[in-house]
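Data card: per-record layout.
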Amino acid sequence: MAPAASFDLDRRPSIPESPQSPASGRRRRSVHAALGSGAVADLLLWRNPTATASVAGAATVFWILFELAGYGLLSLAANSLLLLVTILFFWAKSASLLNRPLPPLPKLEVSEEVVGRVSGEARVWINHALSVARDIAIGRDRKVFLKVMLVLWIVSYIGGLFSFLTFVYIGVVLSLTVPALYEKYQDLIDEKLCLAHSVLLKQYDHALRRTLRQSNKEKKLY
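The structure for this 222-residue chain is written out next.
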């Protein structure tokens, strides 16, 4: 007779975690999908650590060369091309003398497909920027206005503190850290952002009402 199966009453079947936030009940947004679900999203979210670390290392090297060492971009490009052309020339010359294969250079040309893809992506971003500008100018969307105003003020303030190259390097570092941190702590960050957004809207409404009252008083005086 087979022994009876023993059950542990304290053990309960594991329930898969809900995609909703436990604090607010909202569904968690997919950061990977928001970033396009492609190679760029994998790069920004450290899904491919080797590629992301390579980009971060290359950006750091360029920043050190151009900002700290004072090396010029034109000088670096010219010296790099000079070194590359020299190596390829002597390689091809020695290959012809020693009956060796020539340097494995690919066909250097830009295809129409690549140009069309780049222009299509640029058109999407330009149309999005124009749509945001139209919402602010004609649609009077105060939320979009506040977001754009805050972003432009931050960019202007940071731009006055650093050089353009340092600003670009900070942007690269933030791009490689902020999305990954947001994906990890999305619930907490969303809660704080919603609170800050409500406070900003209240302050904006208060300032708008005060401005309207002052303008009405001035009209009554005249």
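Known properties of this structure: Residues 38-70 form one domain. The chain has a mean pLDDT of 77.

See the next section for split statistics.
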